[in-house]
Amino acid sequence: MQEFPRAVLFDLDGTLIDSAGGIAWALDRTLVELGHAGVGEAQARAWIGEGARVLLRRALRHAGSALADDEAGFEHAFARLMHHYADSLPRQAQAYPGAEEALHGLRGQGVRVALCTNKPERFIAPLLDALAWHDLFDGIVGGDTLPECKPSALPLRHLADAFGAREAECVMVGDSHTDASAARAAGMPLVLVDYGYHRDLDLEAAGALAVTPDLRSLLVAAPA
């Protein structure tokens, strides 16, 4: 990066960690409980990125389940997913190469570091504990922390405000349409990783400052 931001906001799944194996494990156990076949990790990867509710609804529709459009039935299915999701957290704690070094490095340069994820808030602390990352973030917003989650601009603006920074002084780092749309809505510069859960996102056309294969590229020389 050429400029020194006041804060860097990171997406979690597909950006800092490769959680797809654990999420797919939880999703498949939920589907089997409901009488459907599991979909496997490859298919789950294609659906991850817009939160657990969207993930489950996609899986139920794929299975031809009426629960996808029956709110009471869907809430029951979602509760079962959350049960298995909690059990899957150790499987989700797979950091991408360079992620931990980037977090430590940015903090060492005086940059505020935040987590801005659509993962339900109650799962974040146990996952960070499994990664030994519990003290690496100056701010954390989960998918149910605020009235709106990404792709709304609200989580990004909330974190910028908490740091006393303008949106233009921060950077959102992510891997998906959800992250790109949230950054665009907030007027916040965007950096995308070239791995993760892109689905059909055109990385080169997303308006990012940079597309990087390694989060350590975020580290810059501190200004004099």
Automatic annotation (TrEMBL):
Specifically catalyzes the dephosphorylation of 2-phosphoglycolate. Is involved in the dissimilation of the intracellular 2-phosphoglycolate formed during the DNA repair of 3'-phosphoglycolate ends, a major class of DNA lesions induced by oxidative stress. GO terms for molecular function: metal ion binding; phosphoglycolate phosphatase activity. Pathway: Organic acid metabolism; glycolate biosynthesis; glycolate from 2-phosphoglycolate: step 1/1. Its EC number is 3.1.3.18. Coiled coil: none annotated. Gene3D superfamilies: HAD superfamily/HAD-like, Putative phosphatase, domain 2. The active site is at D11. It catalyses: 2-phosphoglycolate + H2O = glycolate + phosphate. GO terms for biological process: carbohydrate metabolic process; DNA repair; glycolate biosynthetic process. This is Phosphoglycolate phosphatase. The gene is gph. It is an enzyme of class 3 (hydrolase).
